[in-house]
User: Fold Lipopolysaccharide biosynthesis protein from Arcticibacterium luteifluviistationis.
Amino acid sequence: MEEKEHDDTISIDFKALFNLVGKEKWVIIGITVLFTIGGAWYGLAAREEFVSEGKIMPEISGAGGSSLGGLANLVGIGGFELGLKNNTDAIRPDLYPDVIKSTPFFLNLFEQKFVDKIGDSIRFDEFFNKKIEESKSIDKEDLRIFEGQPSGVVLVNRLTEDRIKDLKGRISGSIDKQSGVISILVKMPDPVIAAEITKFTMNYLTAYVADYRTEKIKQEVDFLGRKVAFAKGEFYRDQSRKASYEDIYAAPTIRLQSADVRRERLQSEYKLSSSMYNELLKKYEEAKIKLQQQTPVFKILEPPVVPTQKSEPKKVIIILGSLLAGMVFSFIIIFIKSGFNLFK
Assistant:
């Protein structure tokens, strides 16, 4: 016997659908209105957030390929090169966003004082608790840290750890691979503090890169500075001793052999200390010039601006989304009540 082929096509009885909608219209309207009211309430009650943005333009070398900041070799014709060509000790720009995601950055941020939109000065950790955590009580357990405190590691409590996780979603950095422009975005409940933190983040990043780039040459400058100070003292001492001896034995009638030997010895020591001092001073000045050359230069392309319009919540989108969700949910309800008899 031949088996009948089953027709898997699903069709909708639109006449029955319209009848069902007409019959259950008050259910649809009621659910949709409830969802819309809920969305409107959320949009009105949700905390306002403001976004401030700043842009930094690192120094790029000219045609000769040299750069005071050592950042030029990082930008290629075909795009952004992640490797380093000449200045292998320079920090890679693609790692800049990671600098402002680091724990030391956030710990430093918590200690800063900012001025809010009403003109009050407030520490950021206090602002965070007041505006972002909405003055919630702090559990003593969240403040506990481990008793062991080994060197070279950072110890934070659970409260700080949770705050840092939240801030990682509020403070972000990105870099344009074609132009090399660094963008910093900060989202905060206070527009003035959002702009201030953007500025602080830009300053922190540029200072971090400059310190990293010049750390070795700074150590050299400090070392030579100490050597120059010591050599200067030796030179001045030998110069004074030589001058004093010349004053004592300057008379032509005094011609002692021992005096001539002493005079030659002092003269030799003076020349040696003079030569040493001048050589170290020369290297010291060269190191300071090199430090200036190695220091990266950053230009503020777009300074942080205090936003006047909030970025969140988007009330219109929330209300429209709630209305749509209410309609979809109400149709699901009436389909379930009908036993899915609309489908054939």
In short: The CA atoms of residues 2 and 8 lie 18 Å apart. The chain is about 55% helix and 10% strand. The beta strands are 50-58, 75-76, 79-80, 113-115, 121-123, 171-175, 182-188, 298-302.
